[in-house]
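Deliverable D2.4 — example input (structure tokens):
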């Protein structure tokens, strides 16, 4: 297994170096190089890990495995590295070639096709957050890399990106905050050929929901904990085998608990919404669900929970970047080609200025998001930066979605064009909590 992973890593590094050369563009080999890396990643990741689907310890860990922090040169530079660029390009190709064509049907069916989710699993994105010592492909933790991947997938479709990335939030949480027993019990399933559907469930069906004032309660018992409450808008809830549930632990405050879907008292209710329909959102109802003492994640640390919320909000910012960029990329050719009164409508100042403002706001959203991600991966305080990014992404992302619908006129209101779907999905950025974890 180690030999296979080393060979895979060497091959990908060689392809990355080749595709990063300036001569590749001059010779017109950029697309073939990206396709080669995408194919190599799929073939390589498919050989990593073959764990049982049952959640049980397959090895005994002396201590938890953590990813090292991405090192930098101390300079403020948001330019992606060569490896990050190639990973982003591979995810962008997957998003545009597979997610985008499937988005309309998935939105109508309120679910993604199993073969599409399997293809996303084969891409191996969820393995990047799991250390190599546990069968994954991760060497260092990089919030910036995760943001770039999330943005690239959302360019294909925000809802489908959410469905694809939801399990990675659980594996990332286990790597960051899980103890040795929790990692040994659950992480082997995530590096297997068929990773489980899983979700980080924080949102609740409450007006003006505050993730730091949870209605879901957890109380201690001689045998562990008992959870009561309802979690809302959980992606792929009906298929999920594992949840990380946020609940108020009496005497401690908000905390995270590992809950298996087979637990007695746990039930799922369908909850289709205005947006995020392809993510097959549902409610997780907890009625006296008993979990063992080892289900508590991160020892109920307030720092752990605050970091979880902030990283999730950063993930939603990344989703908004991808969807807003997709909307802008779709709009520009349309206004240049749509002729009214003998000239393209882009010749009208009202249209041209609106499109220019969309591009300006999008770059502002991207800069704030990347800055917050850069500080996060350097283990600097990034709460304020994330709050600013989220506010801008929520407001301007929704505005970009609305402007696209407006400028497409009647076309923006019908499902023949994806604008109305992007608008519905972008509205979720301002209120959704959890689900992602970059």
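Example output (designed residues):
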């Amino acid at each position: 297994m180690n030999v296979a992973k080393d060979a895979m890593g060497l091959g990908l590094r060689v392809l990355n170096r080749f595709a990063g050369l300036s001569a590749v563009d001059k010779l017109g080999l950029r697309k073939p190089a990206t396709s080669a890396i995408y194919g190599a990643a799929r073939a390589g990741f498919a050989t990593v890990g073959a764990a049982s689907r049952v959640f049980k310890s397959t090895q005994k860990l002396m201590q938890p495995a953590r990813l090292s922090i991405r090192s930098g040169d101390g300079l403020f530079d948001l330019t992606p590295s060569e490896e990050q660029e190639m990973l982003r390009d591979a995810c962008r190709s997957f998003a545009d070639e597979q997610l985008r064509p499937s988005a309309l049907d998935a939105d109508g069916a309120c679910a993604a096709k199993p073969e599409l989710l399997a293809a996303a699993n084969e891409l191996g994105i969820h393995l990047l957050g799991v250390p190599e010592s546990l069968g994954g492909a991760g060497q260092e933790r990089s919030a910036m890399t995760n943001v770039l991947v999330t943005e690239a997938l959302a360019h294909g479709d925000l809802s489908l990106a959410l469905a694809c990335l939801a399990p990675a939030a659980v594996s990332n949480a286990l790597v960051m905050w899980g103890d040795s027993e929790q990692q040994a019990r659950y992480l082997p399933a995530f590096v297997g050929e068929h990773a489980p559907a899983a979700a980080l469930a924080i949102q609740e069906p409450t007006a003006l929901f505050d993730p730091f004032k949870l209605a879901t309660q957890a109380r201690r018992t001689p045998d562990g904990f008992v959870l009561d409450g309802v979690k809302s808008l959980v992606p792929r809830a009906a298929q999920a085998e594992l949840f990380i549930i946020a609940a108020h632990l009496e005497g401690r405050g908000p905390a995270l608990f590992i809950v298996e879907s087979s637990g007695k008292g746990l039930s799922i209710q369908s909850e289709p919404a205005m947006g995020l329909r392809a993510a097959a959102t549902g409610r997780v109802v907890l009625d006296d669900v008993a979990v063992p003492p080892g289900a508590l994640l991160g020892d109920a640390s307030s720092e752990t929970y605050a970091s979880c919320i902030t990283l999730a909000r950063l993930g939603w910012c990344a989703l908004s970047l991808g969807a807003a960029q997709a909307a802008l990329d779709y709009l520009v050719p349309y206004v240049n080609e749509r002729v009214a009164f003998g000239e393209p409508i882009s010749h009208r100042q009202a249209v041209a200025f609106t499109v220019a403002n969309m591009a300006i706001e999008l770059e502002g959203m991207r800069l704030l998001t990347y800055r917050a991600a850069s500080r996060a991966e350097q283990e600097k305080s990034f709460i304020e930066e994330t709050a600013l990014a989220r506010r801008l992404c929520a407001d301007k992302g929704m505005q970009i979605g609305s402007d696209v619908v407006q400028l497409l006129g009647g076309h923006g209101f019908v499902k023949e064009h994806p604008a109305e779907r992007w608008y519905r999905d972008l509205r979720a950025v301002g209120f959704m909590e959890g689900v992602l974890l970059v």
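The first helix runs from residue 2 to 19.
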